[in-house]
Task: structure prediction
Amino acid sequence: MNLRGIVAVSGRPGLFKLVGQNKVGYILEGLDAQKLKVVANITNTKLASLEDITVYGEDEEIKLVDVFTKISAKGTTPDTKADTSVLRAYFNEVAPGHDEDKVYASDMKKIIGWYNLIKDLPLFTEDTPETQGTPAEVKLSEEKAAADKKQKATGAKASNAKATTKTSAPAKKASMTSKKGV
Result:
């Protein structure tokens, strides 16, 4: 199952395919029938790659890919509007060992909805490539690393500037007092 390049966007329903990136943000294409293209702003939009999402487990985290594999092996899914007890019983079968206190009914509905969106796509049956990702994903990770590096450097420069200001201010006062005394 190849979930590389498929992302969930905070504040937007459904799933999107990462198509590319421009100055403003990430270019995403909806996986639904409309194929709506969206530009998600870099500064205020959170993207979560389905490949990286995990489900809280009692002992260890359960990868979403593993949950999807068990759902496809089971063959059927309950309706996302089903009762919480029905969803909980189904989730106990497809994700045994999940933490029932941390995994809410809304999380289960979202995962089942995601599965229903991607089950008919060709990428659902392909194997995950062993490469680092699509060019857009590689660029995404590189830019994120560069932004983190820039933020750390900016934070360091700001703290150095404060230190310089504090150091230089007393030196000016000292020189002014020495001139007055002369």
